[in-house]
Amino acid sequence: MELTLFLLVIFSTNLIQGITGFAGTVLAMPFVILLYGIDVAKPSLTILALLAGLLIAVRGYKDIVWKEFFKILILMFIGLFAGEVIYQYLQTEVLLQIFAAFVILIALSGLFQKKEYNLPEPALNVILLLAGVIHGMFVSGGPLLIIYAVKKLPDKQNFRTTLSMIWVALDIYLIIKQTGAGLMTAFTLTTTAWSVPALLIGVYIGNRLAKKMSQQVFLRLTYVLLLISGVSL
Predict the structure, then answer these.
(1) Residue 92: what pLDDT?
(2) Neighbours of 92 (CB within 10 A)
(3) Which of 20, 9, 1, 2 is nearest to 198 (CA)?
(4) Most buried residue, 40, 94, 165, 193, by CB count within 10 Å?
(5) Can you list the residues of the chain whose pLDDT is less than 50?
(6) How many CB atoms lie within 10 A of CB 161?
(7) How far apart are CA 5 and CA 99, in angstroms?
């Protein structure tokens, strides 16, 4: 039953990932934590996020905005290092509460904020740093990153492919770190391998839907799913 639920989570969240280029991991993380615990959820979803990012980035390679890619990558890596340090010194229960509150806040903001605010460049840079911190702690920096990306990457294809390439770079680093920390256990790798077909099908369908449907509709759907996953924690 746990494996079946895990496969359903991976399929549905990567369908969203295929449409928008983000949110797959942050949607899946709370549910996978409930199923297997955070020490399985983090490495498993990091591997799957890397695969999903590669699929989207390779298909849309020409749409990557490299100037923004390198800026985002540098600032998020700085934040990621800080997030790893914070994760080591706080109790898991405290981190999960912070994570749940963070997801709910982002979801409610996305659903009910009607006025669009033009943030100054320094504020956007701070948001990138915080996105890196969250990614270092929970492999889920997407919600903060999109606040930056929607301002700097208004074209849907540029948005999807550039963000997907960011996840590829960050997740390669995280996989190396998690392997060194002994998190890539036989159980984690076996469970992850079982879910790869669900990921491939989800990303494929999501890519098809992205070409036909409004991104705005699916952003709202993503915020609803974020709210559900946050409340579940």
Answers:
(1) 67
(2) 12
(3) 9
(4) 165
(5) none
(6) 25
(7) 22
Tokens 């905005």 locate to 65
Query: 3-state SS of the chain?
Result: CHHHHHHHHHHHHHHHHHHHCCCHHHHHHHHHHHHHCHHHHHHHHHHHHHHHHHHHHHHCHHHCCHHHHHHHHHHHHHHHHHHHHHHHHCCHHHHHHHHHHHHHHHHHHHHHCCCCCCCCHHHHHHHHHHHHHHHHHHCCCHHHHHHHHHHHCCCHHHHHHHHHHHHHHHHHHHHHHHHHCCCCCHHHHHHHHHHHHHHHHHHHHHHHHHHHCCHHHHHHHHHHHHHHHHHHC
Q: Could you identify the residue written with the tokens 């036909």?
A: 212
CA-based Rg of the chain, rounded to a whole angstrom? 16
Encoding tokens for residue 1? 């039953």
The sign of the CA dihedral 170, 134, 221, 111 is: negative
pLDDT at residue 32, rounded to an integer? 92
Structure tokens at 87: 């994760």
* Spatial CA neighbour of 142 closest among 9, 11, 16: 16
- What is the CA angle 91-93-98, rounded to 5? 95
Q: Which pLDDT score, from 0 to 100, does residue 192 have?
A: 96
Look up residue 105 and give its two tokens.
Answer: 């806040």
Q: Residue 91: its pLDDT value, please?
A: 74
**Beta-carbon contacts of residue 189 (< 8 Å; ≥ 6 apart):** none
